[in-house]
Design brief:
Radius of gyration: 17 Å
Order of helices and strands: EHEHEHEHHEHHEHEHEH
Shape: globular
Number of strands: 8
Bound molecules: phosphoenolpyruvate
Strand order of the largest sheet: 1-2-3-4-5-6-7-8
Largest sheet: 8 strands, parallel, barrel
Amino acid sequence: MARRKYVVGNWKMNGLSDAVAEARAIFVAADDHPAVDVAICPPFTLIGPMAVAAPGKAIGGQDCHSAASGAFTGSVAAPMLADIGASLVIVGHSERREGFGESDADVRAKAEAGLAAGLSVILCVGEPREVRESGGAIDYVLAQVADSVPGEFDPARLAIAYEPIWAIGTGLVPTVADVAAMHGAIRGALAARFGGAAEEMRILYGGSVNGDNAAELLGAGDVDGALVGGASLTAAKFVPIIGAGASLH
Ligand code: PEP
């Protein structure tokens, strides 16, 4: 089946109030590319203001707690994201897995919480450099998929983002053949577990995507979009990536 391209910006811990205007500019420009689904995941503090400035647009959190409420100082629950205007949440980003010690079980619980709150989920997986160099990348990532993807969900509401850790923020990218091989392996594992529903699930690539390499990466086999960090912060850098996605439809 034809899956719509999905281009998602992860702003990480960047952006004060004045960045809302930039997000609005991105969404306005993205309207010229209606074949591509576009989302921005800003810091928690900007979700509400962005939802007001860009009504109806896909705005998401970068993490959520697995519980719906409770004594978890500093955390944000998935229903809170939905309440303030988010429609999606990223879970399992390597900066959370590595920097905050999140296990596959934690990531699965967060994904389940996001889905239960009515959000779409982007679930990140990806190998460290030494695993890639030792030839074990596919086995490593498929184990993450097996252990962190929930057992039951609407396939249209859960996307996987393959983000090799060594490619994030470094300017390094895998070869297109390696990306296609990994995405094909992930699709195969999803098909073995979920049958035909795997065809509806989008698998995004993330790691140093920019306007120059987006068309090639987005055109690789089984690549349904991109999760973009640094190049998603301005319309000047992000809109060409959206345009690259549109050119492939
Ligand atoms: C990310 O952090 O999800 C990411 C892909 O970052 P960058 O595009 O900056 O490599």
